[in-house]
Structures are given as structure tokens and as C-alpha cells.
Amino acid sequence: MRTAPFSRVAMLATGLATALSLAGCTTDGPKSTPAPKAQVVANASLMLANGASAGTAELLQFPGGYRVHVDARGLTPGVHGIHLHTTGKCDAPGFTTAGGHLNPEGRQHGADNPAGAHMGDLTNLTVAADGTGALDFTLHGGADTTGPALFDADGTALVIHAAPDDYKTDPSGNSGARLACGVFVRQ
């Protein structure tokens, strides 16, 4: 029969007409908007006790809080504790001028401590065999409390320690000596 080719053409035409009519349709439902991007608000150049570069760190602000991004290099392979410290000063060799951990709420140290964690507590940094490591961490606390603590009169430092943080021992998680330090400079 000769109707078979015609019916296939008719079905294709009907399908095409339907697709074209639907292409112009809109819905009144919720529209997807892209998530707001984080904005870099401060940078730190990390250095070792001998003055060599140990990488960089950024503080990024997003609606509702802050995030730390670290790109480390020149470190010994393994797991290292990493923290925000109360004073924006990094005098070698021990970097003790950075003070203690940033802790405006007076909590104890560590995510595994029932009386912790404080604002300066970050997760451990894993450094590969080539001496590099990266870390992204959202800080504890909202933007209204975190910002003033980060950008107070004496500034904030980021310190990388020799040993891993055990996430519970007060005051520093048994993370050992301070290997690298950087002062955050507001943009």
C-alpha cells in the first residue's frame, strides 16, 4: 500500500509541530539561579623558617561565611596540622609571634573535642611526595562573627605544623612545631 510512506511523513510532521510549539512554552515555577561565587578578600604568602616560599593561602568570602584555600609547596610529605592564629605576625624561626589559635568564642581545640572546635581549627593538610598539598575549608561561624575576628587590629596568620592534628587535644591537637607561616593581607 502507498499510505505507509505518507503516514510516516505525517507522524514526523506532527512530532515536529509539537516540539516547536513546546519550545515556546514557559513555566511559572522557580527559576534556577547560579550560586553566588566566593570573593577573595585576603591573601597570605607562606614561608618556611629559612625564608623559602611554602605556597599561598586565600581567604574567600561567600554569603554566610568564609573559606580558606591553601596551595602549599616545599613541605615534607605527610599529614600536617594547619590552623589560623590570632596575630598577623610570622617571625622565624619558630613563628611563635603568630600567637595561639584564633578562638574568639573561647572553645577548646578540635572537632572531636566535645568543647571544641574553635574558629582556627582547620582539617589536616596532606602533602604529596613532591612536597605539594592543597586544602579548602569552610570556617566555623557565620560572616558576622568570623569577619571581625579575621580582620581585627593585629591581623591573622595561617600556620602549618610538623605533625598531624589529632582533632581533640587542647590547645593545638598535638600538631607539633610550626613549619610555615603566612600573614593574611586584606584586598
CATH homologous superfamily (4th level) name: Superoxide dismutase, copper/zinc binding domain
Sum up the overall morphology in one term.
globular
**Mean pLDDT over the residues:** 82
Can you write the helix and strand succession as a string?
A: HEEEEEEEHEEE
Share of β-strand residues: 25-35%
Uncertain stretches of 5 or more adjacent residues: 9-34
Task: Please give the number of β-strands.
Answer: 10
Give the terminus-to-terminus CA distance. Answer: 78 Å
Helicity, in percent?
10-25%
The CATH architecture category equals Sandwich
Number of helices: 2
Domain Superoxide dismutase copper/zinc binding: 55-183
Signal peptide: 1-19
Keywords: Signal
Pfam families: Sod_Cu
Walk me through the topology.
Layout: H1 3-23, E1 39-48, E2 53-62, E3 65-72, E4 78-80, E5 82-85, E6 125-127, E7 133-138, H2 143-150, E8 157-161, E9 178-183, E10 185-186
Antiparallel strand pairs: 1-2, 1-9, 1-10, 2-3, 3-7, 4-6, 5-8, 8-9
Quick description:
With 187 residues, this protein is α+β, with helices and mostly antiparallel strands. It contains two helices and ten strands. The protein has a single domain, classed as Immunoglobulin-like (Sandwich).
Can you walk me through this structure?
With 187 residues, the chain is an alpha+beta fold. The chain has a single domain (39-186), classed as Immunoglobulin-like (Sandwich). 16% of the residues lie in helices and 30% in strands. The chain has helices at residues 3-23, 143-150; strands spanning 39-48, 53-62, 65-72, 78-80, 82-85, 125-127, 133-138, 157-161, 178-183, 185-186. Strands 1, 2, 3, 5, 7, 8, 9 and 10 form an 8-stranded antiparallel β-sheet that branches. It has a two-stranded antiparallel sheet with strand order 4-6. A hairpin with a 4-residue loop joins strand 1 (39-48) and strand 2 (53-62). The protein is globular, with a radius of gyration of 26 Å. It starts with a helix and ends with a strand.
